[in-house]
Amino acid sequence: MTTGKMEVAVLGPLGTYTHEAAFKFFGSEVVYNEQDSIADVCGALSSSVPFGIIPQENSIFGTVVETYDILRNTGPNFVRGEIVLKINHCLIVKKGVKLHQIRKVMSHEQALGQCMDFLADKLPEAVSVKTKSTAAAARELLDSPSDCAAICSGICAELFPGLEILFTSIQNERSNFTRFHAIAYSRQASLPHFLTIDYEMKALLRITPCSKSSLECPTDIIAFLLDQNIIIGRIDRRPFVDSVPFSSVYFMEIRASDLHDRSSHRFQAWSQEVESIASKLGTTSRQTHVIGIW
Ligand SMILES: O=C(O)C(=O)C[C@]1(C(=O)O)C=C[C@@H](O)C=C1
After folding, report:
1. Which keywords does the record carry (predicted)?
2. Are 50 and 116 contained in the same domain?
């Protein structure tokens, strides 16, 4: 049965932080399309699943590497929004299991990283096992022996009967946030009108070497952007695998210093400014692509 509602791809199963972030952004006006990995979320995007949510950075453990590796080759996909979610990790076990019984802890690598101090302190002998998502770890717990635990959101203890919370707030710092991107299947896709958008206008540029050349840190781009009064919010680097060894791809997240008003007129002006900047930044040895405006 089709509901006629728009579909949004998320990392599944139900109970992941990505699903929670997507719900915070899109609410109940859409249908959530669960995928097995961040790459599958991007791969699922099409005219019938026009948006997806992918994690971008955590305030404790840093960049979500898988996301940036996908952004090296986004094809037509285009970042159209952002969501910040408070992350509060729990240690979850099968009902009745005690801390001293645990020998194996499963979770997404980001969650394992964010809870490193807890694991070293309370479970120094336990093996950490990466799963495709935090909720996938909780689901796997159901068919695992009693010496296993999962790190995930407390919601998972309600979603998967038979599990219970042993510890809450186990991340290294009490204050823990992950920022997510809302990614569209193409740059022509605009966010639905029912959303409330409360963030500043931004854009994401990807700077790649032309084939068989190497790319140094593009300091001239930084100087150019500063000269145009553009604020560089962050610069990320990943290896560019199709080029000479140790070559780089750079991601620059930018915003204008004076564009806080999000009226459609101002947003259009910002979009044009970004395109015009990008067209001036290419050289014979590198390309600049705009891979998001939001
Ligand atoms: O596994 C999940 O629940 C996710 O949504 C993925 C993810 C991530 O990749 O950063 C999202 C938020 C948390 O930082 C931990 C894991």
Report:
1. Amino-acid biosynthesis, Aromatic amino acid biosynthesis, Lyase, Phenylalanine biosynthesis
2. no
Region of poorest pLDDT, from 47-51, 116-120, 254-258, 269-273: 254-258
Does residue 196 fall inside a structural domain?
no
Listed in order, strand segments (DSSP E) in 215-273 are 230-239, 248-256
C-alpha dist (Å) from residue 229 to 113, 167, 254, 255, 287: 36, 47, 10, 9, 22
Identify whether residues 241 and 283 lie together within a single domain.
yes
Does 292 lie in the same domain as 247? yes
CB of residue 171 inside a 6 A radius of ligand 1: no
**pLDDT one-digit tens code per residue, 24-83:** 999 998 999 999 999 999 999 999 999 999 999 999 999 999 999 999 987 889 999 999
Tokens of 142: 């159901």
Structural domain that includes position 282: 201-294
Are 38 and 119 within one domain? Answer: no
Rounded CA separation 184/193 (Å) = 15
Report, as an integer, the average pLDDT of 236-249.
86
Confidence of residue 165 (pLDDT cuts 50, 70, 90): very high
ipTM over 0.95? The verdict is yes
- Dihedral through CA 43, CA 48, CA 50, CA 56, nearest 10? -30
Choose which residue among 108, 112, 140, 156 to substitute to test ligand 1 binding: the one with the highest number of ligand atoms within 8 A of its C-beta.
108
Do 115 and 247 belong to one domain? no
The answer, yes or no, to whether any atom of ligand 1 lies below 6 A from the CB of 87, is yes
- Same structural domain for residues 210 and 287? yes
Same domain, 282 and 250: yes
Domain count, the chain: 3
* Percent of the chain clearing pLDDT 90 (strictly above): 78
Structure tokens at 110: 């980001």
Same-domain status, 64 and 179:
yes
**In-domain check, residue 194:** no
Number of the ligand 1 atom closest to the C-alpha atom of 136: 1
